[in-house]
Design goal:
It contains 34 helices and 15 strands. The chain is an alpha+beta fold and 820 residues long.
Length: 820
């Protein structure tokens, strides 16, 4: 009201005396109707809304159904909690007052749960409708790209005729033509699917505010894009650089587009065909320069001649051939004028700061290119890195036992060490030796050599050298140069970082090609070629493992762990777990280990080292299982600190410190059976396989029995234990066989000693009583008769004679004592 010129002039026309002129009238308005300084109350709001709605109603006394749309509510509220509360209050008040005749709809870029402030409105906006990318595409097609039914068939014919041109656009990139593009060609015309994806990718990477994702923004961009070509001949499509003009203002405001760069691009268009195309080329190069080039996000789009032509061609029927002929010359002129800089096959926008960075880069590039020693070292380092990465996934598991093996990667001119227990892989490249030399070295080593020879061919020499030098120069430029704290400086730095990524990608691609073309030879000169380095090396390694461990097959079985467990549990047939049902000494692993251990003894750790390495490479369980079986079978004896150890007491943790000795005498099944029978008779029943461990205890028991079968007078003299001492002096199989041979004598002696011990237990108490009786009867005449007989028993050790010589003497003393 205060600013309306029309209102003031209208009032003066009706009432000329109201004011001198319309300016004076507007001043009077402000005086008579001062601005309200207070907030509008809820009641005022409701009354005003009712007044408006009554005016819109066709039924007196009844309000019409009304829709209120709060467009972009998210942007209005932002992070302001007060605005959230105000919106909530308005919606609650209106819904309570008007009921179902009033409907509120709010729109925004995020869902109602997308921000903390919007979440507070969930109770008022209960029905949520999510608009997907597909929905946006459908709206754009219906609103802007809709076509007459009569024009669809002619358009389809034109697009079919131009399919060859369409299918070549950005074909080598991740956004290139796809199988389902054909169904969208007509609905999306004049937007090509590839260019739509290019726009989408560009917007996603440059839009930090999210505004380009809004439906109205996409509608505007699309509408402006097709407005200029709507009346051109059928087959004309929207060029990829159109989006530059549409978003130029926004990009300038956000400093994404430098004003100098925009000015430079604008000035190129001098209304000549060459000037217009030069400006469009620079705009397109700018757009491509904003796309990511990181390894994981890289789409493969580069600002080279083919890509620029693919995105700029407009006339599908004429095709891009004429455009492709014009572009190289224009680009070269732009490079000569220092508007663009060329990086390989690609082109970049040049700024003042960028020119300084570029000059620094070229100085370092020339220096790096001339430093052959440095490039050689870097080339070798990169070869090592890529070869290791390529071979990393090769499973090095040998045989049924799946024994893990290691690969000894050797880079250099000297022969690799051959005693590491690992598969030697000797890698050399064509910059240091010729393939003929590598092949002759393999032939010279012979067919028994486990060495795998790898030759990396010398190819793309200049390109490889350029990539290494370019990477070094760009990296050093970024590291040493301090970027100005300006958008232009940051752009220059980003451009150089992009150059680093490009050089790295080029270097890695060249190395990957060299590595995949590598030649693989086995000892003897056999060429292994299975298509890829990994497959060829894997096959060569499998054969090299056989050469490295020629005796491995003897002990290759996955059940040796079961053998270890069962033999410690006393199972005499434990070797059946590894498919051996014969004698222990005939099993291949047992035979090798028995032959290796001598009578002087071998430590368990040395035995393991010998058979787990060398020409065997056996699993530890195979070595441990065979040792335990040989000990259980009596073919080896085991001692720890010179103390014999039985199979049950030999754990896998102890095997390394135990000494194993070869037995010269063989123990047969008959020996073991005889020993078990003897032990059972002696009161020591044992299970099969426990005979050896029980013999020392039995001999000790016999020694104790002998000691208990005699003693001081009048007891008999202690029996001789010479036979037991001889047996205890023996060990291992020799002891087992000797005990077996003396089993009858041992048992006979045991019976005699046992009987004597029982008689001593019965008669010795009476002898002690006799001594006490005689002491009390010294004054009686009977003592003179009994005492000589007692001395005779003592001196003759006749205590155990039959009949018992003690009882009559005790009776005589007892009778004499009673009569005294």
């Amino acid at each position: 009201m205060y600013a309306s010129r029309v209102l003031a002039e209208s009032l003066l026309a009706v009432c000329p005396d109201y004011a001198r002129d319309q300016i004076d009238a507007r001043s009077i308005f402000r005086t008579q109707y001062p601005p309200a300084q207070t907030e509008i109350s809820n009641d005022e709001m409701l009354r005003t809304m009712e007044d408006v709605l009554r005016l819109q109603s066709n039924t007196p006394g009844k309000l019409p159904y009304t829709l209120i749309v709060c467009d972009e509510l998210q942007q209005f509220i932002g992070q302001d909690s007060n605005r959230t509360f105000e919106v909530q209050t308005v919606v609650e008040t209106c819904c309570s007052h008007f009921g179902t005749r009033l409907l509120f709809v709010a729109t925004g870029q995020a869902s109602v749960t997308g921000t903390p402030q919007l979440q507070k409105l969930q109770g008022r906006f209960t029905n949520q409708v999510m608009l997907s990318d597909a929905d946006v595409e459908q709206v754009v097609r219906k609103v802007v790209l809709s076509k007459k039914s009569s024009e669809i068939d002619p358009l389809q014919a034109v697009l079919t005729a131009a399919s060859g041109e369409i299918d070549r656009h950005l074909a080598a990139t991740r956004i290139g033509p796809r199988s389902d593009d054909s169904k969208n060609l007509v609905p999306d015309y004049p937007l090509l699917p590839v260019r739509s994806r290019f726009w989408e990718l560009f917007l996603r990477n440059v839009d930090s505010s999210g505004t380009t994702g809004q439906l109205r923004t996409q509608l505007r961009i699309t509408h402006e894009a097709i407005k200029d070509i709507a009346y051109k001949p059928l087959g004309t499509v929207v060029a990829g650089d159109v989006i530059y003009k549409q978003l130029k203002v926004n990009m300038l405001q956000s400093s994404m587009l430098l004003r100098d760069v925009d000015t430079q691009i604008t000035q190129l268009d001098d209304n000549t065909p060459g000037g217009e195309l030069s400006a469009r080329l620079c705009a397109m190069i700018f757009l491509i320069g904003k796309l990511p080039v990181e390894t994981l996000r890289d789409t493969g789009i580069r600002s080279d001649i083919d890509t620029l032509a693919d995105l700029l061609v407009e006339d599908l029927m004429t095709g891009s051939a004429p455009l492709r002929q014009r572009i190289p010359g224009l680009l070269q002129k732009l490079v000569d004028d220092r508007i663009l800089m060329q990086v390989g096959d690609e082109y970049r926008i040049q700024t003042r700061e960028g020119k300084e960075w570029e000059a620094e880069y070229h100085r370092r590039y020339e220096r790096a290119l001339a430093d052959d020693i440095r490039l050689t070292g870097e080339r070798t380092t990169e070869f090592q890195r890529v070869v290791k990465a390529t071979l990393k996934g090769i499973p090095l598991l040998q045989g049924q036992s799946k024994i893990p093996r290691k690969l000894d990667l050797h880079f250099g001119l000297d022969y690799p060490a051959g005693d590491t227990g690992m598969v030697p892989l000797w890698v050399r490249d064509g910059w240091s030796v010729t393939e003929k030399t590598v092949r002759e070295d393999a032939q010279r080593m012979g067919v028994k050599s486990p060495i795998v020879f790898v030759f990396l061919p010398k190819q793309d020499t200049d390109a490889f050298k350029d990539a290494l030098a370019s990477y070094d120069a760009a990296s050093e430029t970024v590291t040493t140069r301090v970027a100005a704290n300006t958008v232009e400086g940051q752009e220059a730095k980003l451009s150089m970082q992009s150059r680093i990524q490009m050089a790295q990608n080029k270097r890695d691609t060249l190395i990957e090609s060299i590595v995949q073309n590598a030649r693989v030879y086995q000892g003897g000169g056999n060429d292994v070629d299975l298509g890829t380095l990994q497959a060829s090396v894997k096959a060569a390694i499998n054969d090299a493992l056989i050469r490295l461990f020629p005796n491995f097959s003897l002990g290759d079985h996955p059940a040796w762990g079961t053998v270890v467990k069962q033999v410690r549990e006393g199972n005499a047939n434990a070797l059946m777990a590894v498919a051996h049902n014969g004698n222990v000494e005939d099993q291949a692993v047992c035979k090798e280990i028995r032959n290796y251990v001598d009578t002087l003894g071998k430590k368990g750790s040395d035995i393991r080292k010998h058979f787990m390495g060398g020409s065997y490479g056996w699993p530890q369980d195979a070595v441990d299982g065979a040792l335990l079986c040989l000990v259980a079978g009596g073919f080896l004896s085991a001692k720890k600190s010179s103390v014999p150890v039985g199979v049950k007491d030999i754990t896998t943790q102890l095997i390394g410190v135990i000494e194993f000795y070869k037995e010269g005498i063989t123990v047969t099944a008959a020996h073991r059976i005889g020993i078990r029978v003897l032990l059972t008779k002696l009161g020591f029943p044992v299970k099969q396989g426990e005979e050896v461990a029980s013999i020392p205890r039995v001999l000790s028991m016999l020694r104790e029995s002998a000691a208990a079968a005699g003693g001081d007078a009048p007891l008999p003299e202690t029996p001789s234990i010479a036979i037991i001492e001889r047996l205890q002096a023996l060990s291992g199989n020799e002891q087992i066989v000797a005990v077996y041979e003396q089993r009858d004598e041992l048992y006979a002696n045991f019976k005699v000693w046992k009987d004597r011990h029982e008689q001593i237990a019965q008669r010795l108490p009476d002898w002690n009583k006799l001594q006490r009786f005689l002491a009390h009867a010294r004054s009686l005449p009977i003592a003179l008769q009994v005492e000589p007989q007692v001395e005779a028993i003592r001196n003759g050790r006749h205590l155990l004679f039959n009949p018992d010589p003690v009882l009559p003497l005790m009776n005589d003393l007892r009778t004499a004592g009673a009569n005294a």
